[in-house]
C-alpha cells in the first residue's frame, strides 16, 4: 500500500520546486506576511519554510497528512467554486509519502508551539527511539515551520530523474521570485543553508511594503523595471480582472520572462504566451524577448479545476476572448505612452 501511495505522491511532487510551491501557497492561505525559506542541496536534503500565519491547531495535527484533509472546503461540490490557492488537501499527504516531514506550529491562542513528525501519511514519533507519536510541546513563534527532509529518500527513480542540486535550486528560486513579486505586502526570503552559519545571504529578500514593481526591480534590476508599463482592466464580459507589468516596444531585454498568475496561482498558459510572443514580435528586435508579469482573476467556476496538481498549464473558459482583451489593452497602453 505504501508503494502505491508513494508512486501517486511522486506524480504530484515531482521535484523540490513543486513541493515548495504547495508550501508557499499554504503559508499564503494561512495569512502569512512573512515567509522564510531555507534550502539544502537543491531542496533534496532540506526544504524548510517558516511563516507567521494562523498556525495549525494541535487537534488538527494527527490528520494533517491524511489525504483530502483540508480546512479549505466543506464539501466536495465546493471544489469548483473555490477561490483560494489550495483545494485538494493532497499536498502535505503527498509530501509525507516521499520525505520526512516535521511540523512546528503555534496558533495565537496556544501558549507554546507543538511539534509533530510524519511519514507515509501518518504521525510518527518526533524523537527517534520513542514509541509515542503524539505532538510534543516546544518553544516556537506564532505560525508554522515545515521542514521537508530527505525528499525522495524512498523513491530512487525520482531522484535519478532530477538533474542537479544547482538546477533544482534555480527552479526553487524561480518559484520564490514569482510569488514574492505577486504578493507585494508579504516579506519573502530564500537562502541556502550553510553549515555553521545561519546568516548566509539570501538570494531573494523582499520586504513588507514593497510594491510588485519594486520587487520586479529588486529581482530583475532597475533597467528592466524602468522599461515596464502597467496594464490593467476590469472587464464584466468576459468577467476578468487583469493586472500586469509589461515591457515596451523598444525593450532591450535579452532574457525573456513570463510570470503568469491565474487566481493567484503561478501557472503556465500556452495560448496567452503564444499571443504575447506574436504581439511583441511585431516590435522587438531579433534576439530580444519581452518581460511580462500578468495576473488574471477569473470566476473560479471557469478555471479548469481538474488540472493535475502539478501540471502548471491551466485552462479556462472564454480563453480566446480573454487573451484578445489582454493584447488589446497592452496595445492601447503602448500606443498611448510611447517609449
Ligand atoms: P490544501 O491546501 O489543499 O487544503 P494541504 O495538504 O496543502 O491541502 O494542506 C492541508 C491543510 O493543512 C490545509 O488545509 C491547512 O488547514 C493546513 N495547513 C497546511 N500548511 C499550513 C500553514 N503553513 N499554516 C496553517 N495551516 C496550514
Ligand atoms: Mg495546499
From TrEMBL:
Residues 216-335 form the DNA mismatch repair protein S5 domain. It is found in: Nucleus. Belongs to the DNA mismatch repair MutL/HexB family. This is DNA mismatch repair protein S5 domain-containing protein. It comes from Rhodotorula graminis (strain WP1).
